[in-house]
Here is the input.
Amino acid sequence: MKNNRRKYSIFFLMAAVAIIDLCFGIFIDSYSAKHPLPGDYLKIEYMMKSSDEDMLIIGSSVAINAYIPQIMEDSLGLTCFNGGCNSQTLPFYQCMVEGILSRYSPAYIVLSMRKDDLFDEGLGFINLLKPYYGKGYASIDYFLDKQNGRKSIFLHSNLYRYNTIGCRILLQYLQSVEKISRKGFVPHAVPKYPPSLINQYAYASPDRRTNPELETCFLKIVDLCRQSGVRLIVTSPPLYIKLPGQGNPYEFSALENLCKAHNIPFINDSQSAFFLSRPDLFYDNSHLNYFGSEIYTNRFIDELKEKCVELSSK
Amino acid sequence: MLFNSLHFLGFFPAVCILYRILPQKYRNLFLLSASYYFYMSWKPVYGLLILFSSLVTWIAGIYIAKQSERKSQKRMLIISLIANFAVLFVFKYAGFFSSLINQTLGFAQIRMQLPPMELLLPIGISFYTLQVTAYVIDVFRGEIKPERNFLRYALFAAFFPQLVAGPIERAKNLLPQFRQEHRFDGNEFIDGIKTMAWGYFMKLCIADRLAPYVDAVFNNYLMHNGASLLLGTFFFTFQIFCDFAGYSLIALGIAKCLGFNLTLNFKRPYLSPDIKSFWRRWHCSLSSWFADYVYIPLGGNRCPLYRHLFNLFITFVISGLWHGANWTFLIWGAYHGLLMLFYVLKNRLLPKIKIHSPFQTAISVFFTLIIVMFGWIFFRANDVESAFSIIKKIFTEPGMLYKGNGIPDIILALFCIGLLMFKEIKDEMAWNIHLIHNKNEVISLISLSLLISFIILSADFSGGAFIYFQF
Here is the structure.
């Protein structure tokens, strides 16, 4: 009798896991609707569901630490939000642009690109978008299916969708929570020792080719912005890395050509002579510290204004 | 095929169902086919190696039993041992020894060089080789009767749950189980699922989550300071335990679901109060193999002290070398050999200290864990030079901790380690707190479903291979 009951235990077990999965999904959905999630999730959720700024900055951690929206707002007279997310690349940017534009059209999107953005391999931390799987965002579904391969069948489970992320969300409450009050900008402290210059000039590789899939992502972003009447500006903040090809670094020439071909303004400050001579303004070789970002934002605004005027006159 | 792959997720239920549906007389044949499919889905041609080992040892077993003369029995035993260990040597050690010979020739300024021999190591070869050779030795010693049915014997050699990373089963435990009829037992099946779930927790939530941090610091140790390397070593201590013990538990659970009982390979090793106890709890099936087939034949401890110490030391050195053809494993084995020598000498020369209080026990456990952890540096380092540099850095270069994939990942890993250690301490102290193994079926089932849900929520599903596969 008992053995017979045990026979069905496996079905009870499966049902129990399914119920926990369902309850977890309901809980996390209602929780995130009432309480902001910490870190990058807060930004993603904000940009996907409630942002209404005139200008949105999309990019990676380089963007988070480079652009101070308050300064930009004062100078441009436009509301602005820095939507940079850590360790992200073009597929993520495409997903974000698609998600945002499905809800509203900002006047400008500033796409902050890194020198490797067209050359990377893989899809970056796209799994961060797992909670949005199956919720009507075609790009998110496409990239997550691609990233997870045959495992994407599990994306229908709420627990799996929050795999790692769920724990990160809980644990990030233990850390200092990124404040949305800074409009997405997160300052970096001034390090004890400034970084030393990395000279990549010696590693120039003329054979390096752009990743066609990433190029497609870029073109898709251009296309989405055009369709929604959003003005797209591509930028690249200062680096403390000397790139190959003085004045016209090889990596950026690919991006420059792409922008030129599609009439997208490109503000490339990655090799700014001023910043290359000021290691004290950097947190590390790729990220500005707080003083660096303040100086950079003020300098960048002038260039940005020019591009905005150019775009408005078109 | 890996236990943590999607492929296995389809394979396992299919095997369970078909095994139960089939009539008893076809079940062994089915399990054998499933085992070969499991192994050959990695590299089909290497299935021939298991077949070869199985054939040689099966014939040897029957031949030995037929011969009445000890001399001819011995000859057959030696032939079968040479045949099996030669295969192991060619695939595992030929590259190492050829490079060693080339270095020596170069040092002696002799121009002749052996061609490089880098063969792809068949996974699990070290495990099944030990298992089948133990069978022939047991037959030779008269401890077991030879298995006349090749199908049954081939299944013993290739039984998929324990084929690639143990436990290294003895014929007297596993072979008779293939002769029995296994009726479905609900209790046994659910117990198997529970064992598997805990194994997956250890593998996916701890070992695989710690792996990126460990790899980052050990593979780029020059870029990291002492604090990060110390944390990396601590993490590796748990990574290797959870990876291997996790695999063993999954194997045990799978076997249990099919109605078989395998040997428990790990018995709370990090709660050992001394090094001897550690080796009684760590990789038990391998330790007992080396004790029965290397240490005791060498003379064991029934000989003069110097010989006893030599036997111990050489057994550990061989055990180190079994793990891989690398100086780091040799040093790791020698390090543990030396620790055992100190332990034996201490017990012989100094009066025995009886540990009474829990505090004293905790101190002994902590001290043993530290010395074991130190040994893992040699085990994990890519070469001997790196191992010594890492040790030097740990003691001389303090600094900021490398955060790897972020503080949340580190905290999550530490939380899971805490959970594991709580269970280990609870089991060691025989506390009467049971969740998964609660007598109340409802509590037990809910606990199990919560554990499975926690695994889905926090595991690393990137599909990391098991560390011991490379051995």
